Amino acid sequence: MKRLAILGSTGSIGVQALDVVARSGGRFEVAALAAGSNADLLVEQARRWRPRAVALADPAAARRARELLGPGGPEVLEGAAGVTALASLGEVDVVLAAISGGAGLASTAAAIEAGKTVGLANKESMVLAGELLMRRAAEKGVAILPVDSEHSAIFQSLAGHQRPHVRRLLLTASGGPLRTVPAAELAAVTPARALKHPNWSMGAKITIDSATLMNKGLEVIEARWLFDVDPRRIDIVVHPESIVHSMVEYVDGSVVAQLGVSDMRGPISYALAWPERIPLELPALDLPRLGKLTFEAPDPARFPAFMLAYRALELGGTAPAALSGADEAAVAAFLAGRCSFTRIAEVCAEVLEALAPEPVGSVEQALAASDWGRRQAERRVAG
Ligand SMILES: NC(=O)C1=CN([C@@H]2O[C@H](COP(=O)(O)OP(=O)(O)OC[C@H]3O[C@@H](n4cnc5c(N)ncnc54)[C@H](OP(=O)(O)O)[C@@H]3O)[C@@H](O)[C@H]2O)C=CC1
Ligand SMILES: CC(=O)[C@@H](O)[C@H](O)COP(=O)(O)O
Ligand SMILES: [Mn+2]
Fold first, then answer.
1. Which of 9, 121, 158, 173 is buried most deeply by CB count within 10 Å?
2. For the CA of 149, the nearest atom of ligand 2
3. What pTM did the predictor assign?
4. What residues does NADPH bind to (predicted)?
5. Which ligand is closest in space to the CA of residue 215?
6. Domain of residue 364, CATH code
7. Does residue 383 share a domain with residue 308?
8. Which domain holds residue 344?
9. Which ligand approaches the C-alpha of residue 122 most closely?
10. Three-class DSSP category at 145
11. Is 112 in contact with 140 (CB distance < 8 Å)?
12. C-alpha to C-alpha distance for 98 and 104, rounded to whole angstroms
């Protein structure tokens, strides 16, 4: 039996991970749960799964959870340090990193340092400090198993092949809810419209990133480090049906893809159960009913955000971290009605070009660069 710490348990990935646990026939035990401030849902989850410890980043929420759980309940830790501490608990075998944003980096790094297998949903960890984390994981002999659907697909399609045999990685993108919207209409897009993803039900930040295509840019950076592939050999293909989750093109021209219904419980269970596979009893892929699968090139004129990720990789060092921080701030401003949809990518581009990148020597340095990007973006949004 594998013992899990699910960090971000109250979010889209966290809730689906607990559904995977429920369907797994007792293969997993929930040893720890963590969230930001949603004490009520965390307490409900703790009552059902009886972890040894839980944590809430928000101290007031942690106090509420302690009151609700009462004596005899799990230990309730608080603050960022409490969340990070769960990643290295002795009772934990696998850490599912499913916190949203740069806030997930410290606990991912702590899990690696503690020698835990990591199921990585939090792509920002790789964006902020991918080179550093992969080096430490190799030194510690830690497996980082991708949960992001595209990276899970690439991991499965690589099937142990050697890097010299790989010509290109092909990351598929749905194109998001605004794929067919003309350029002239994009500035007036409302948060409600941008939040209507055609295929996936996800947290707000990643859904807006899907709409701008920044999500695909962040995924290029994630793939660059997870699979140690030069960014010039990572291409994006728009595939509105989200059935082909990504592909690997080999030097002999053969292309291997992973297909499946658009349901994150697939990649989550793959990472948690790896190297085994478990039956989930989810709806099967029905290709005759789908009839056809379509593909097109991404449009950098309407959706320039994904190009910024290639630019950040070219700049190197702290540039991806600064881009990620700027994007978090710009997306929050858009959701709060403080900037337009098209301003998100403009602000990110301005911040990236204002940066003097430095090598990323530590997690703290990566977080500082992300904070710098966030502050720069906030200033530009306000100005
Ligand atoms: N949703 C999806 O289908 C996919 C998501 N991902 C990635 O997975 C990650 C999670 O995404 P998603 O589940 O959609 O996000 P959600 O916004 O739905 O959930 C975020 C989770 O993180 C918790 N959280 C937020 N801030 C903190 C913090 N400072 N400390 C501890 N916990 C915190 C939230 O707690 P609370 O509820 O209390 O705020 C919540 O449990 C992201 O990095 C995303 O890019 C990748 C591929 C697909
Ligand atoms: C489910 C998942 O992995 C998301 O990251 C997804 O890729 C978002 O959809 P887009 O392809 O629209 O960015
Ligand atoms: Mn993805």
1. 121
2. 3
3. 0.98
4. 10-13, 36, 38, 122, 124, 203
5. 2
6. 1.10.1740.10
7. yes
8. 192-212+301-383
9. 1
10. strand
11. yes
12. 7
